[in-house]
């Protein structure tokens, strides 16, 4: 039997891209790719800061072929979900609570229309926001996967001082101005590709989509976004409700991640009652699902096995 096509630079013909309206009227771009035949369940995937769901079509194709109906939406203020700042190239949000409110409302609607097994996968900022929503009672997935989750930020001056600098910078100037000039972190000589993946071809997938649809691209975060990211991750790290989470969690972390704090992720994982951590070494950068095959195949395999165990179904 031939393997199904692994989409990367083409939207599958059976997938739908629509709009979802949040309770306050804000329009979000939404992606749905139903499973064929007997579905094993529904999978909601949430991307990181500045991401678009097109970057993960290869992973979606794999899971859809295993019987999962796939859904994703672009976070408010990025991708195809509009912009919140003065500069359309800058990623801005006034408060991470807006993200949580959107996810909570979307989860409620999506759950109602997705009977049966429901799982969630969150990458980077998406991992932080989905876990925070679960902790706050805004979502109850049957299983949760966090891929290189943003549970703490990497900062050349440390998280505490980094938050103070970001908060002060947001107060003394226009909080919507970019925190740095290019879409990379400061105080590093590494290229953006090196920060994300060792796989040049998969990195070019993102360039392809940005070239084909320039309106989806976004650059550096605003000072307000950065200040809110520090505050939200700090609050989640200290949230006593982590110990009350009953959802089984799989956390995939890259020990050499230059964008998020692996130490913070491990501290959070240790406080979750039912969490499995899979660690990758120097062979892995931030985007584990878009890494070279040696890393990506292990990550995908761990996720598949985790879902097999915790959802009681095998493809």
């Amino acid at each position: 039997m031939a393997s199904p096509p692994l989409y990367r630079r083409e939207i599958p013909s059976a997938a739908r891209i629509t709009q979802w309206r949040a309770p306050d009227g804000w329009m979000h771009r939404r992606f749905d790719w139903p499973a064929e035949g007997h579905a094993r369940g529904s999978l909601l995937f949430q991307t990181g800061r500045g991401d678009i769901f097109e970057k993960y079509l290869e992973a979606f194709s794999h899971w859809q072929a295993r019987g999962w109906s796939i859904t994703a939406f672009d976070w408010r203020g990025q991708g195809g979900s509009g912009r919140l700042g003065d500069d359309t190239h800058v990623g801005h949000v006034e408060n991470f609570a807006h993200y949580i409110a959107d996810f909570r409302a979307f989860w409620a609607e999506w759950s109602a229309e997705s009977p049966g097994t429901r799982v969630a996968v969150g990458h980077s900022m998406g991992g932080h926001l989905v876990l925070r929503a679960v902790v706050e009672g805004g979502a109850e997935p049957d299983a949760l996967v966090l891929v290189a989750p943003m549970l703490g930020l990497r900062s050349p001056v440390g998280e505490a001082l980094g938050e103070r600098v970001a908060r002060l910078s947001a107060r003394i100037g226009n909080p919507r101005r970019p925190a740095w000039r290019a879409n990379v972190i400061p105080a590093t000589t590494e290229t953006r590709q090196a920060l994300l993946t060792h796989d040049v071809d998969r990195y070019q997938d993102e360039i392809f989509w940005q070239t084909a649809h320039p309106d989806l691209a976004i650059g550096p975060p605003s000072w307000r976004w950065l200040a809110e990211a520090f505050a939200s991750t700090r609050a989640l790290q200290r949230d006593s409700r982590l110990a009350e989470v009953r959802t089984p969690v799989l956390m995939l972390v890259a020990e050499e991640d230059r964008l998020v704090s692996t130490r913070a992720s491990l501290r959070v994982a240790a406080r979750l009652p039912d969490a499995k951590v899979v660690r990758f070494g120097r062979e892995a950068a931030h985007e584990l699902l878009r890494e070279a095959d040696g890393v990506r195949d292990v990550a995908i395999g761990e996720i598949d096995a985790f879902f097999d165990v915790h959802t009681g179904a095998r493809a």
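The chain has one domain: 16-311. DSSP finds nine helices and eight strands in the chain.
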